[in-house]
TrEMBL record:
Keywords: DNA-binding, Metal-binding, Nucleus, Repeat, Zinc, Zinc-finger. It holds the Pfam family zf-C2H2. It comes from Oedothorax gibbosus. GO terms for biological process: embryonic morphogenesis; regulation of transcription by RNA polymerase II. This is C2H2-type domain-containing protein. Residues 25-52, 53-82, 83-110, 111-138, 139-166, 167-194 form the C2H2-type domain. PANTHER family: GROWTH FACTOR INDEPENDENT 1 TRANSCRIPTIONAL REPRESSOR, ZINC FINGER PROTEIN. The keyword Cell wall biogenesis/degradation does not apply. The keyword Repeat applies. InterPro entries: Znf_C2H2_sf (IPR036236), Znf_C2H2_type (IPR013087).
Length: 205
């Protein structure tokens, strides 16, 4: 590793700022120059073949973290989901989201509410539950200022202002703002009663 010092000629272009004694770091293998030592160090790994960073999508190795991040962004842009659940084959972008999903199959509930001792499979579910104790209304409608404890309730409320009905009946084409409203409507066509977990629990007990 060697470094050289150059001086800018102020007479060449009066519009350019002066940078006297600017140090450049030169690669002794390919003579490529860099403005900083850290950049040169990262570059040298391309010659040694050292690859410490591996893509979580395709396992390809990279010498620098920045190169890895750039590579993984290409995967994400393509919408790739390399992590598959062995139980239901649903796919996920990251290992973390896959693990969060898997607890739904195992039934493991390790997150406990300090107020009522109710158990939850995921930390996010516990946080949502805590709102029932605190009464916190975090989501405020910008149109009528009505507040809601959960994002889902807030989004459903917004539809009352926009008139949007994203849930459409396949039989008659009628639209609904809420999915559960559509489910109740479908019964009119099929005559089947929707499955009730509450009734199921009563029968078991």
């Amino acid at each position: 590793m060697s470094e050289i010092s150059i001086e800018t000629n102020s007479n060449t272009n009066d519009d350019l700022p002066l940078h006297k004694d600017k140090k450049l770091y030169t690669c002794e293998i390919c003579s490529k120059q860099f403005s900083g030592k850290s950049e040169l160090t990262r570059h040298l790994k391309t010659h040694t073949g050292e690859k410490k960073f591996f893509c979580k999508f395709c396992k390809e190795g990279f010498a620098g973290r920045h190169d890895l991040q750039t590579h993984e962004q290409a995967h994400k842009a393509a919408g790739e989901k390399p992590f598959a659940c062995e139980m239901c084959e649903k796919r996920f972008v990251s290992l973390k989201t896959l693990k969060n999903h898997c607890v739904l199959h195992t039934g493991e509930r390790s997150f406990k509410c300090d107020v009522c001792s109710k158990l939850f499979a995921r930390n996010g579910d516990l946080k949502s539950h805590m709102i029932t104790h605190t009464g916190e209304l975090r989501f405020c409608c910008g149109i009528c200022n009505e507040k809601f404890p959960r994002r889902a309730a807030y989004k459903t409320h917004i539809l009352t202002h926009t008139g949007e009905r994203p849930f459409e009946c396949d039989v008659c084409g009628k639209g609904f703002a809420r999915k559960d409203s559509l489910s109740r409507h479908v019964v009119l066509h099929t005559g089947e009663k929707p499955f009730s977990w509450q009734l199921f629990c009563i029968v078991l007990n």
